[in-house]
């Protein structure tokens, strides 16, 4: 069960050097899409130097348009494995289909379930059976109740390692790509023992808002952040508008560390 009433101690999810739910704020950073081995190894080295605790990058991309870049698939997973070999960073990457779970689990340290798949129950069960920790993103129109029940599909298969991720929801607002509700963080911390991370990149869709929402997330009690970073955001294969540079990421890390000490 995901409920804090059923399990009193807080769940800490560990994968290589990544620890989510422990004393420190975990920072999962990297490009939206894995573009090439050179790109992902280079950014992984930079991010490791700036204090990131895990590397993100999509090999299977759930794109709104079927004509957009869909990811390098298994080759992308191999590129991520090369980045882990070079840096020791844990790999967080999305799996989109139940039949791909064994393949993605061979390369990844944490299996990401995307917002669009939050209620793909067969995928949730397959990830539950995989033996790998899961990072479950909130569906863009899912209630918190539905979000927690989706997490229970994974827990129910005997996999206790579930990280909840608030990544923004659809509202009438259109000044940001999604609306990022940070009360979710505090609410989930009351309701559930599972660790909570925030994705300020998808949550806002705007690189200029990522730093403030990251800091607010940490202040609200988030166990971690997942942030899109690219050496040249304008040239990113996907989600460039919400992607920050390594320099901005470095500044943000220092600020978040100070906030984490204060809360
Ligand atoms: C992503 O992390 O790049 C992504 C596609 O996220 P979401 O499922 O939250 O849209
Ligand atoms: Mn993205």
From TrEMBL:
<protein>
    <submittedName>
        <fullName>3-deoxy-7-phosphoheptulonate synthase</fullName>
        <ecNumber>2.5.1.54</ecNumber>
    </submittedName>
</protein>
<feature type="domain" description="DAHP synthetase I/KDSA">
    <location>
        <begin position="22"/>
        <end position="255"/>
    </location>
</feature>
<keyword id="KW-0808">Transferase</keyword>
<dbReference type="GO" id="GO:0003849">
    <property type="term" value="F:3-deoxy-7-phosphoheptulonate synthase activity"/>
</dbReference>
């Amino acid at each position: 069960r995901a409920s804090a009433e059923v399990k009193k101690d807080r769940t800490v999810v560990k994968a290589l050097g990544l620890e989510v739910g422990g004393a420190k704020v975990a920072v999962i950073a990297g490009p939206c899409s894995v573009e090439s081995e050179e790109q992902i190894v280079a950014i992984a080295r930079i991010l490791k130097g700036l204090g990131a605790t895990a590397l993100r990058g999509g090999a299977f991309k759930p794109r709104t348009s079927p004509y957009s870049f869909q990811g390098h698939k298994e080759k992308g997973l191999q590129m991520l494995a090369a980045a882990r070999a070079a840096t020791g960073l844990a790999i967080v990457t999305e799996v989109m289909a139940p039949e791909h779970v064994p393949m993605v689990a061979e390369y990844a340290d944490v299996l990401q379930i995307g917002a669009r798949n939050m209620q793909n129950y067969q995928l949730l069960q397959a990830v539950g059976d995989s033996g790998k920790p899961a990072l479950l993103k909130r569906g863009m129109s899912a209630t918190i109740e539905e979000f927690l029940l989706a997490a229970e599909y994974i827990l129910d298969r005997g996999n206790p390692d579930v990280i909840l991720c608030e990544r923004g929801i659809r509202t009438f607002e259109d000044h940001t790509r999604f609306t990022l509700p940070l009360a979710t963080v505090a609410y989930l911390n009351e309701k559930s023992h599972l660790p909570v991370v925030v994705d300020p990149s998808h949550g806002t869709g705007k690189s200029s808002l990522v730093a403030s929402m990251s800091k607010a997330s940490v202040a609200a009690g988030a166990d971690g952040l997942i942030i899109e970073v690219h050496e040249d955001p304008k040239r990113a294969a996907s989600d460039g508008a919400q992607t920050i540079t390594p320099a901005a990421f470095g500044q943000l890390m220092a600020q978040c560390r100070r906030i984490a000490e204060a809360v």
